[in-house]
Amino acid sequence: MWIQETLRLRARTRGFHLITREVLDAVPNLCSVKIGWMQVFILHTSASLTINENADPDVRVDFETAMNHAVPENLNYVHTLEGPDDMPAHVKASMLGTQVMIPIRDGRPVLGTWQGIYLCEHRDRASGRSIVITVQGEVE
Q1: How many domains does the chain have?
Q2: What is the greatest pairwise CA distance in the chain?
Q3: What three-state secondary structure class fits 68?
Q4: By the 8 A CB rule, do 132 and 41 touch?
Q5: Which element (helix H / strand E) includes 24?
Q6: pLDDT digits over 96-133, tens only?
Q7: 13-50: pLDDT as tens digits
Q8: Domain hosting residue 85, numbered range
Q9: Model-level pTM?
Q10: With contact defined as beta carbons under 8 Å apart, do 125 and 48 qualify?
């Protein structure tokens, strides 16, 4: 069985935002998948996806701090047409990636106790983001 849904996320501020519930709610037929996988793919070049700690909100702040330290906005970027946060956003998105793959077992994602799916928003004033969720699996 194949399932594919497109999820339009509301605009968010710059930072790291848990979107696990939104992703799962976008795929109501997931509950029928006995075993399989789910790919979550973002259709943008200045935001990314990752899986990490879902409990302590301080982790989200620390992620943003670390990414800004690793990819500062004050480098001598050539691509500057869309503002000073654009090229650093592209670099951060390439570092973190455009997709996550999650195994599915008994209709649920197999995530660790403290794992969640993050939208990593790297722009100061981004619009909403679109995500394609593809599930392949064996149904019950």
Answers
A1: 1
A2: 55
A3: helix
A4: yes
A5: helix 20-25
A6: 999 999 999 999 999 999 999 999 999 999 999 999 99
A7: 999 999 999 999 999 999 999 999 999 999 999 999 99
A8: 2-139
A9: 0.95
A10: no
